[in-house]
Amino acid sequence: MTENLDLASDYSPTREQWLAAVDKVLKGKDFDRTLVTTTLDGLRIEPLYDAYPAGEDESGFPGFDPLTRGAQAAPRENGQWDIRTRTVHPDPAVANAQILEDLANGATSVEVQLDLGGGEGVSIRTPEELARVLDGVVLEAAPVSLRAGAHAATVAQWYRDLLAARGVHGAEPSGSLGIDPIGTLVTTGSVPMDAQMMAAMDVSNTPRLRTFLASGAPASGAGASEAQEIGYVLSVALLYLRALIEDGVDNPGSRITLEVTADVDVFATVAKIRALRHCWATVLETMGQPINTTQIVAISADRWLTQVDPWVNILRGTAATLGAVVGGADAVTLAPFDSAAGLPGDLGRRLARNTQLLLQDESGIGRVLDPAGGSWYVESFTDELAAAAWKFFQRIEAAGGPIEAVDEIGADIAVVAQRRDQQISTRRHPITGVSEFPLLDEQRPEPAPEPPADTRAPVAEPGHVHVETAWPQDRLADPYEELRENAGDATVFLANLGPISVHTARATFAANLFAAGGVRAVSDEGHQDADSAARAFADSGADIACICSSDDVYGELAAATAAALKQAGARRVYLAGKGDYDGVDEYIHLGVDVLDVLTRAEAAR
Question: 480-604 adopts what CATH topology?
């Protein structure tokens, strides 16, 4: 009966036929509003992608110009990428123990954030303390990437002296000095520019050591879109590249590390890394340099980490790592899930390592070369993102480069950040466990104990240049978490009207909305009249109330219930849904500005 069954025999797969079929399903609804998503860069995410017209796919092959599909022509050996861990513990001895533990348990390189001036990171003031931090690390085998902000030039010299003292030959040590004066300038407002540029030019005796870091983290932390982050990284990297060329450094691209953030949007991360590699290859080719020598590192975006319900950060980190590896990052650094609350604990650090190890060794995603290649969606997204990033990059260059255009770049990023903040405020862009599905009775992990503050004077770094305004570095969950921290034992009474089948949907919606601000919902099975709801409110101890039911019930009881609740002492009365009823102060529904609602609720308590 099923012999020779050909399900596609009467179907010609044309886009026009598909659109006609979709139009029937939409029943008059607007196609774009219903099925098309627009990114913060203004790029359209279509519901369906099909093949490029003949000759229009310019992504090429892995290992060949324009490097969109990867810098190497063969898959990674054993499917392995550089699993990099970050060390930030202020105590040098503890930091050293953590580094050795990471390297012994799957990490292939380490990133050390150093603090020479009362900031964040491993607190050191002398070259001997740097040596203590790296004691037992085989520097010729384990790449070390340093971050020292305004003190990068000093640390670079200390590290070179340490290599010499340990007899590490020039051709052996790899890793990065992490000198990023532009990144330090835009995030702190000042940097010893000349000293850092000179330190990065000193490439003698260390042919494998990368000196400059062009990181997109400052732009990401300020709220940049994907295209803005890429454009910023390109402009900073080009400034460093020109300096190396002018200084006569051979193969200058090999001295620069490009760093971008990996976000919770897997496809956006994949496209961002592919687009960055394509654009940077174009820059190098234009400058007459080899195109496949620059390392691309992906780090998980700090802006998406949450203090509230931090366990969800484990999933965010997994998504970020997946996107980074599929996009072809050479190295990946994943922040521990508990790092937003302070120093990460042993569990957070272990899971950060093992997340990458699981994806590498059990999932095997590194064994396939450019696994996203050929996806019409990914290829189209990559091309459009590269074009948008290149346009932003050209604007920066036309304004004189990243230093001269720092305020202009910051202003452009602020516009995008404001749009994203609005999406988060309205929950169009949800934060799971924070703005959506909050867990008020959560059990958070205990943060690692903080050692005593280092009160020693900071290491002096003369010759700073300054900008008027540094870029903010915020987490997206901050406004919700602040409300939740201030809520204490606040409650909202849900005045459920009618039977359970009538009020449950809106009562659940209201309970979750108020819980996002730390306000616990108090409710019962439902009421048949306004006076019953008012008596229950008076017994609840709450200061505010929210009426929950169907539109039909609202027409009969909403106004009377609102009046009775006010008479019983409610400082503010909400209604779940839309309408215009006497006595109701505010309406909550899909699309409402949740942060505004919660802020006014806080003021009413």
Answer: Rossmann fold (3.40.50)
- pLDDT confidence tier of residue 6, bands split at 50, 70 and 90: low
Q: For residue 129, what are its two tokens?
A: 């303390």
| CATH classification for the domain delimited by 77-425, as one of 1.10.600.10, 3.40.50.300, 3.20.20.240, 1.10.510.10 | 3.20.20.240
Cα radius of gyration rounded to whole Å, the chain: 28
- Give dist(CA 179, CA 148) in Å, integer: 8
User: 3-state DSSP call for residue 519?
Assistant: coil
Contact 491, 522 (CB under 8 A): yes
- Dist CA 84 CA 515 (whole Å): 37
DSSP assignment of 226-264 equals HHHHHHHHHHHHHHHHHHHHHTT-SSGGGGEEEEEEE-S
Asked if 461 and 358 touch (Cβ cutoff 8 Å), the reply is no
Span 13-23, average pLDDT: 85
**Residue pair 335/317 in contact by the 8 Å Cβ criterion:** yes
Of the candidates 132, 156, 137, the residue with the CA atom closest to the CA atom of residue 99: 137
Predicted structure pTM score: 0.94
DSSP state of 432: B
Report pLDDT for 55.
53
**DSSP annotation string for 344-372:** --HHHHHHHHHHHHIIIIIS-GGGSSSTT
In this prediction, residues 257-275 reach a mean pLDDT of: 97
Q: Which amino acid is at 437?
A: F
Measure the CA–CA gap between 389 and 213, rounded to whole angstroms. Answer: 19
pLDDT above 90 coverage of the chain, percent: 78
CA gap 554, 306 in Å, rounded: 38
466, β-bridge pairs = 190
Domain borders along the chain are 77-425, 480-604
pLDDT digits (tens, 9 = 90+) for 431-456: 999 999 999 999 999 888 888 888 88
Confidence of residue 10 (pLDDT cuts 50, 70, 90): low
Instruction: Report the alpha-carbon distance of residue 129 to residue 146 in Å, rounded.
Output: 14
Mean pLDDT value across residues 59-74? 74
Burial of 350 (0-12, 13-18, 19+ CB in 10 A): middle
For residue 85, list its beta bridge partners.
110
Per the model's pLDDT, the better-predicted residue between 468 and 106 turns out to be 106
